[in-house]
Amino acid sequence: MNKPPLLQVNNISKVFGATPALSDVSLEVSEGGIHSLLGRNGAGKSTLVNIIAGIYPPTTGDVLFEGRDIRSLNIFTRQELGIRLVPQHENSFPDLSVAENIFSGVLPTRGGLVDWKQINDVAAEELAAYGLAVDPRTLVRELSSIDARKLNIIRAMHSGAKLIILDEPTTALTNRERAELFTFVRELKARGTAFIFISHYLGEVLELSDAITVLRDGRMFPVDTSDHVSEAHLASLVAGEEVELAHRAIDRGPDADGVFLKVTDLHGDNLEGVSIDVRKGEILGVVGFPGSGAREFCRALFGLTRLDSGTITAGGQKVALPSPERAIAEGISYISYDRQREGIMPTFDVNENIGISSHAGKLRALGGFVNLALQRSLSEQYRQALKIKCNSIDDSMDSLSGGNQQKVIVSRLLNTDPRLLILDEPTVGIDIKSREEIISTILDLTHRGMSTIYLTNDYEELLRVADRLVFFDDGRIVTVLDNTDITIDELTAIRDREKEAV
Fold first, then answer.
1. For an engineered disulfide with 246, which of 18, 83, 174, 439 has Cβ 3.0 to 4.6 Å away?
2. Which Gene3D superfamilies match (predicted)?
3. Mean pLDDT per 10-residue run, the chain (502 residues)?
4. Which residues of 14-39 are buried (b: 16+ CB within 10 A; e: fewer)?
5. Which of 237, 211, 248 is nearest to 43 (CA)?
């Protein structure tokens, strides 16, 4: 007799008020299997996994786990059965130790007191068993991004997880860290752990998955993985239409004779003598591991990390070491890699989020007031130009999908009329259609003369858009190359070689 699938979702539908979120969705996950979910933001992925985890009840349909109907079970009972959700955003306790996080909520006691020896000893055994080489007494905030992701999975395994739902687990990880995480997941898969894997990165979905389901507007589109499946095919399924990947036009490059930004001998937070020019209309791609100085360089130009010395010239004029206010006044704008903490104002509406950075600039009216009519007019123009999906510019930011939130952030910075746009992981965690719309907007503006510094760990994306590549390590620029017929493998080899040489 064949063993039933670990998880069976049969004909699930979900309606919120009068709005259908899911319609007749079915899927199966086998023991030791990896089933990926793809879809644009708002396609229904989060609703489906919340139903599986027990956060939402389905409107109709069945959920079976190990052959048992679990529709009536709450999230805590489902966790006891072995269903664990590892969300995209950090859910650990950063100021507690690794061991305390593993045992969170169930600290063993002895004689009425917490048994710290048992906690640390057992945690050390589990860390060793799962290949995470950290001291169990280490505070979680001191962990690297990849070790923090692994810890979240180990916490789930400690609690007896049989099915782990990974929601965008590779967000903001480097290519090397992604590969390390995938090795970790495959090792657990080999032991029988099952995974539901949610990602916007089509390449990693194809690399990791046993089965793939695309959700679009709440409806399912199973992918036949028995034959070769291309990223282009997945992209068209996700978007519901053919998606053309944006590329830098060879004949529309930067002004070779014009330099907008000139940086000379910058010293500061993890920066040691950095010098580089950024040409008018150029897209300068930035490559570097965390702590290499790549992100610190981007943030320092906007005044978000410390600069001790050096000179910065923008548009031919020497400028003081920047603060965000001064940077914006000089025509320099920055998009943070952390949209939730440094990008959006979630309780403000779309109109306010777009206009806020221009209140001291073109939106400033007589007497220091804000020209609210002009702000609404410009916000509406950006809503249409970037195809921001919302009912109106009066919608709150936290009602928008991640891709549309990112479009609002891009609109805010473009509203400041920047001459240099610094992009730090501008498309992380957003769907492919929104990604290409944002990239196309940036390419169009650089063709008109705006300069761009582009930092991303998505090297396929970087090679599509960058004119030059600058490699950072140990706070220094170690290599600068024209982006001419460079492959991802070659880029990675250069990055690793320069790392070893420093």
1. 439
2. P-loop containing nucleotide triphosphate hydrolases (3.40.50.300)
3. 82 88 94 92 86 94 94 93 82 86 80 85 89 89 86 88 90 76 91 92 88 91 82 83 75 67 93 94 91 92 90 88 85 84 83 87 81 91 87 88 84 88 85 84 89 90 93 93 88 75 54
4. beeeeeebbbebebbbbbbbbbbbbb
5. 237
Tokens of 99: 């061991």
Tokens 């609404």 sit on residue: 376
465 Cα distance to chain centroid: 19
- What does the DSSP assignment read for 283-330? EEEEE--TTSSHHHHHHHHTTSS-EEEEEEEETTEEEPSP-HHHHHHT
Instruction: Round to whole Å and give the CA distance between 104 and 114.
Output: 12
- Torsions phi, psi for 328 (to 5 deg): -60, -40
Q: Residues of 448-481 as b/e, b for ≥16 C-beta within 10 angstroms?
A: eebbbbbbbbbbbbbbbbbbbbbbbbebbbbeeb
User: What pLDDT is recorded for position 1?
Assistant: 47
SS3 labels along 19-69: EEEEEEEEEEECCCCEEEEECCCCCCHHHHHHHHHCCCCCCEEEEEECCEE
- Number of residues in the chain: 502
Given a contact cutoff of 8 angstroms between Cβ atoms, the answer to whether 52 and 9 are in contact is: yes
- Closest by CA position to 25, among listed 193, 196, 195, 166: 196
Distance CA 66, CA 73 (A): 14
Which stretches of 174-217 are assigned E, i.e. beta strand? 194-198, 211-216
Residue listed under structure tokens 């923090």: 148
Q: Is the pTM of this model over 0.90?
A: no
Partner residues linked to 278 by β-bridges:
261
pLDDT score at 23: 93
Specify the 3-state DSSP secondary structure of 83.
strand
Distance spanning both ends of the chain, measured CA to CA: 60
Distance CA 421, CA 446 (A): 9
- 418, 334 in Cβ contact below 8 A? no
CA distances from 112 to 97, 105, 108, 118, 177 (A): 21, 16, 9, 14, 41
